[in-house]
Design goal:
This protein is mostly beta strands and 106 residues long. It has a single domain, classed as Immunoglobulin-like (Sandwich). It is built from no helices and ten strands. A hairpin with a 5-residue loop joins strand 6 and strand 7. The two termini are 14 Å apart.
């Protein structure tokens, strides 16, 4: 099993996720991995909305390209859409948040 991949890109209007919603398939995936494509941005955590019991604690690291990466396990026990909030810092030291969706599929 692996992670569903989601890229996070910063722009003048904040950040965006691709894909959004990020689909997680029970048959082939056991979590989500977010990667910042923009240098200098760092994940600081995640807040999960309704029914966070399917999800584990975030693990934040840096990949070989020096980009911030965050992974969260997902049991995909309950199907449907889940709101969450990505928390991050900007290269200038400010904080930010973005509210995309995880879609748990069979």
């Amino acid at each position: 099993m692996g992670y569903a991949n989601c890229t996070v890109t910063a722009s003048n209007n904040g950040v965006s996720c691709n894909p959004d919603p990020v689909p997680v398939s029970r048959a082939t995936q056991n979590g989500v991995e977010w990667t910042f494509t923009s240098p200098g941005y760092t994940f600081t955590g995640i807040t999960l909305g309704s029914n966070p019991g399917d999800f584990g604690n975030p693990v934040i690291s840096t990949n070989a390209a020096g980009r911030s990466v965050m992974t969260v396990s997902d049991t995909v026990s309950d199907l449907g859409d889940y709101s969450y909030t990505l928390l991050y810092t900007t290269p200038q030291g400010g904080t930010g948040r973005h509210d995309p969706t995880i879609r748990n599929n069979p």
